[in-house]
């Protein structure tokens, strides 16, 4: 078990190392002078160009040898210094990200967990049951092929613009401040439902399909046929099939994280939800490169941590990963 | 996993199955017809009787046809100012017009072209990388496998969109070809993983051993022994990568990181959203791009399930 987890941790550390290196290398090895490129695209006022140019050169640390730049980048990173935002100068990038993070997590975590739970349950029910299969499956295929931002736009158009049941944008009413009060919590929940639904529905479709197909494979397996031939009730056979089918789904959960994060980014933008997605769009529009790089690192770190948690969970639910590793 | 006999080569429709195309829903099994002598016609036989395959491929072909022929049916280019703004669909403007007075129909059909281009090229590059790396890692084993596996795992964990955002932010993406290449270079890992594990289970089989003893090169063994035995798997991998590339491309375009000089379905959504089309109720502007993507990607997925049932007899008898 420790070997299994140790292997994973090595992979995650290497991934983090590679990600940081990409983050460092892209502005430096892209064609052209990054500082000039950034400034020309920013269309800054004439007076501010020199100041910005000086800031960029210093911030990138171009005046030292390349290996020194790389080490400096790591040193700054480990001190939690991701540079300063250009659009909100001089707010540190890390402060902006920390402010947005809770909103993104509030959307992502429930969407991932609930869609995984509900999708697997419904997919398992639908397998080998004609009526359910013929309704759940087509709907799931349409959902999993839906771009999240489009579903968000349609939900906002129907439920916020046309029928005015839910608010169109934001994470809470404009006249209240974020605080630990019931009023804020209710307002938050009210604004949360539509973006959550957009993320939930798309992910739900994928899990339902995956589980439905997996269960059919498991029900065809020898152990299922043997159990059935012993006279075990269908319910019991399906229960065992479900447990076995769940394992590849958990692996799939780790693989799907990147897509879910991408979905959260675009859905947040649709609803002007003040999380990392909206922050990303602002950073792209303002050409706020340090902010983009900071968000990139944060997203990757988050996905790595989530992957590690899933690995631990996998060890808990699949005894083979524990016993197998002890034997060898 | 379904393992079928070699089905490589150009597919020529046998006369009897060609007539089936006209009446694809005929449910009754014709006596004599299933006794097809060759694997290929057997696959075709089941494919033409599988409603999922027919439905999925029908939708995708219809979208492809719209992408190819559609632009001929309109006098407007997608970004041109045609006159009236915010018009609902009419006989003059089939899908209405945008707030900038552009023809939505024209944007839609050109957007479909971009989607197919990004899907085919991005999915194709990812497929070549994934299959190449998967075969090499799985067949060679040893340190080559360790290195490639590490590479696969690293790229696998990094969220594709995150890396695309940072690359596209510095490298101004001017064409859909560039966009597709970037997508292709980042979305291959799961395919590599899948092909690798398939190769692992195949390479210890006798026929591969015999091929190795006969002194054939690794490349030849992969091309003539391994690949044909998992051709169905490879085909389905390509279909999934194709659909995935379209979805990623749409997200990238929606963020405004794709080419902005020409039109795509994602960019249509971006424009509609930024122009507050959903508050104005201009549904004709933002509904078509999403429905187009759902049609192509959903069609591909459904076609994929159909193919799975065609190749794998266990799944057929539902």
Q: Can you give a write-up of this model?
A:
The complex is a heterodimer of chains A (328) and B (318). Chain A has 328 residues and is mostly helical. In chain A, 80% of the residues lie in helices and 0% in strands. Chain A is built from 13 helices and no strands. In chain A, helix 5 runs antiparallel to helix 10 and helix 6 crosses helix 8 (182-220). Chain A starts with a helix and ends with a helix. The model of chain A has no long low-confidence stretch (mean pLDDT 83). The longest helix of chain B is centred in the middle third of the chain and has 37 residues, at 104-140. Chain B has one domain: MetI-like fold (Orthogonal Bundle), CATH 1.10.3720. Chain B has helices spanning 15-20, 39-47, 51-69, 104-140, 142-157, 160-170, 176-186, 189-202, 206-213, 218-229, 231-254, 265-274, 277-280, 283-311, 313-316. Chain B has 318 residues and is an all-alpha fold. Chain B contains 15 helices and no strands. Residues 1-36 of chain B have low confidence and may be disordered. The chains are: A mainly alpha (328), B mainly alpha (318). At the A-B interface, helix 1, helix 6, helix 7, helix 8 and helix 10 of A face helix 5, helix 6, helix 11, helix 12 and helix 14 of B.
């Amino acid at each position: 078990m420790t070997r299994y987890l140790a292997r994973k941790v090595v992979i995650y550390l290497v991934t983090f190392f590679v990600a940081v290196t990409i983050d460092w290398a892209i502005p430096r090895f892209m064609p052209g002078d990054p500082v000039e490129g950034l400034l020309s695209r920013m269309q800054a006022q004439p007076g501010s160009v020199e100041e910005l140019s000086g800031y960029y050169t210093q911030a990138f640390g171009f005046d030292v040898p390349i290996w020194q730049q790389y080490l400096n980048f790591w040193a700054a990173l480990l001190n939690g210094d991701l540079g300063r935002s250009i659009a909100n100068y001089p707010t540190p990038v890390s402060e902006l990200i920390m402010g947005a993070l809770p909103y993104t997590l509030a959307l992502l975590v429930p969407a991932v967990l609930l869609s995984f739970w509900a999708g697997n349950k419904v997919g398992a029910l639908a397998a080998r049951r004609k009526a359910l299969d013929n309704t759940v499956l087509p709907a799931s295929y349409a959902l999993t092929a839906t771009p999240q931002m489009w579903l968000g736009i349609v939900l906002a158009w129907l439920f916020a613009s046309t029928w005015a049941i839910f608010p169109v944008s934001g994470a809470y009413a404009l006249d209240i401040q974020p605080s630990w009060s019931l009023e804020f919590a209710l307002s938050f929940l009210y604004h949360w439902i539509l973006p959550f639904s957009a993320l939930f529905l798309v992910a739900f479709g994928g899990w339902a399909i995956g589980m439905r197909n997996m269960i059919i494979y498991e029900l065809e397996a020898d152990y299922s046929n043997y159990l059935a031939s012993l006279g075990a009730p269908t319910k019991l056979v399906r229960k065992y099939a479900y447990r076995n089918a769940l394992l590849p789904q958990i692996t799939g959960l780790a693989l799907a994280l990147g897509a879910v994060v991408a979905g959260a980014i675009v859905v947040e933008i649709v609803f002007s939800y003040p999380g990392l997605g909206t922050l990303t769009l602002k950073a792209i529009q303002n050409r706020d490169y340090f902010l983009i790089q900071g968000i990139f690192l944060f997203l990757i770190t988050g996905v790595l941590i989530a992957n590690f948690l899933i690995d631990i969970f996998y060890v808990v639910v699949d005894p083979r990963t524990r016993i197998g590793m002890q034997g060898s | 996993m379904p393992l079928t006999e070699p089905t490589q080569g150009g597919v020529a429709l046998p006369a009897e199955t060609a007539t089936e195309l006209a009446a694809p829903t005929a449910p009754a099994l014709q006596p004599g017809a299933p006794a097809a002598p060759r694997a290929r016609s057997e696959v075709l036989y089941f494919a033409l009787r599988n409603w999922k395959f027919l439905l999925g491929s029908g939708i995708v072909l219809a979208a492809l046809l719209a992408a190819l022929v559609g632009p001929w049916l309109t006098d407007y280019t997608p970004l041109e100012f045609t006159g009236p703004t915010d018009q609902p669909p009419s006989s003059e403007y089939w899908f209405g017009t945008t707030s900038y007075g552009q023809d939505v129909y024209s944007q839609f059909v050109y957007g479909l072209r971009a989607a197919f281009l990004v899907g085919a090229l991005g999915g194709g590059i990812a497929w070549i990388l994934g299959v190449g790396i998967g075969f090499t890692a799985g067949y060679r084993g040893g340190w080559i496998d360790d290195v490639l596996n590490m590479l696969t795992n690293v790229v696998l964990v990094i969220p594709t969109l995150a890396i695309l955002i940072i690359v596209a932010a510095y490298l101004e993406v001017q064409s859909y070809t560039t966009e597709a290449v970037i997508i292709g270079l980042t979305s291959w890992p799961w395919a590599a993983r899948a092909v690798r594990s398939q190769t692992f289970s195949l390479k210890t089989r006798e026929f591969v051993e015999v091929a190795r003893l006969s002194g054939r090169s690794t490349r030849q063994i992969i091309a003539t022994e391994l690949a044909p035995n998992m051709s169905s798997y490879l085909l389905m991998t390509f279909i999934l990568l194709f659909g995935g590339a379209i979805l990623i491309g749409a997200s990238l375009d929606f963020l405004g990181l794709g080419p902005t000089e020409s039109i795509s379905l994602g960019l249509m959504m971006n424009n509609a959203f930024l122009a507050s089309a959903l508050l104005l109720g201009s549904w004709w502007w933002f509904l078509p791009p999403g429905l187009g993507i759902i049609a192509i990607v959903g069609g591909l997925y459904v076609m994929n399930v159909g193919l799975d049932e065609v190749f794998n007899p266990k799944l057929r008898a539902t």
